[in-house]
Amino acid sequence: MDKGLSSLITETDKLVKNYLEYFNLLKGKYKWGPSDPRLTSIGLTGNILVSHLINLTLFKTTLSQQDWWAKNLGMSSKEIIQHYADEYTIHIKSGLYVFFYGGVESSIRELYSLYFKKEPPMNFSKVYKEFFIKINEENLDSLFTFMSSVRNLIHSNGVYSKEDGNLLFRDRVFQVKKGVKVDFFTPYLILEIYQDLFLALKKIIESESIKTL
Q1: Number of folded domains that form the chain
Q2: Rounded-to-integer distance, Cα 109 and Cα 105, Å
Q3: For residue 79, what are the CA distances in angstroms to 71, 88, 92, 109, 127?
Q4: What are residue 62's phi and psi, to 5 degrees?
Q5: 197, CA 20 to 30 Å: which among 79, 85, 139, 144?
């Protein structure tokens, strides 16, 4: 557990630094205002990622240590400690993912408005599908579809509510069945989604259609 957690912290820290470096690069390279969505899309999602890093670090130094439970909460049973630690992990990872998803969605909506000079549709899938076609980045569609599917799974407590099928991410296929709880929503998968979304935001911002607006 500790080895896996340390690896997650290391990789998340790398991603946070990538966000910061890219944000500073954009500020130095372009004369965009502080409220420009090409900047705020990186700043907003980067800040949420910092919260994720802080949570992982706090977990390692507190909740992963049995003596912390005894000293602060008077708990000594390994089974009870594990139960509450697992519950905490589920709640926090899900909450932060929803916040991150919201940050990405609001950023794409603002970039849509910047490009089309109009308000985006209510349905987010319509927003990113139309947007990606116009800026010639249709290859990002599958990532955003998977990201949205994971968000929907959080709202249904991990139970897949649509018809049986497959969810695609990177080179993997996740089989899902209606009414059955999924088991692939791990901290490692979340990190991979965050990594790919960072690359996607960079690709969007650096597309000729967007950076020249």
Answers
A1: 1
A2: 6
A3: 17, 14, 20, 45, 46
A4: -125, -75
A5: 85
**Does the predicted TM-score (pTM) go above 0.85?**
yes
Q: In this structure, is residue 70 part of a structural domain?
A: yes
Beta bridge mates, 166: 175
pLDDT digits (tens, 9 = 90+) for 101-151: 999 999 999 999 999 999 999 999 999 999 999 999 999 999 999 999 999
Distance, in Å, from the CA atom of 133 to the CA atom of 143, rounded to the nearest integer, reads 14
193 close to 147: Cβ distance less than 8 angstroms: yes
In a domain, 176, yes or no: no
Residue 87 lies inside a defined structural domain of this protein: yes
Q: Which of 117, 129, 104 is nearest to 195 (CA)?
A: 104
CA distance 7 to 14: 11
| Model confidence pLDDT, tens digit, residues 66-78 | 999 999 999 999 9
- Beta carbons of 97 and 49 less than 8 angstroms apart: no
Pairwise CA distance, residues 163 & 141, whole Å: 20
Give strand ranges (E) for the chain: 165-169, 172-176
Domain span at 28: 2-136+189-211
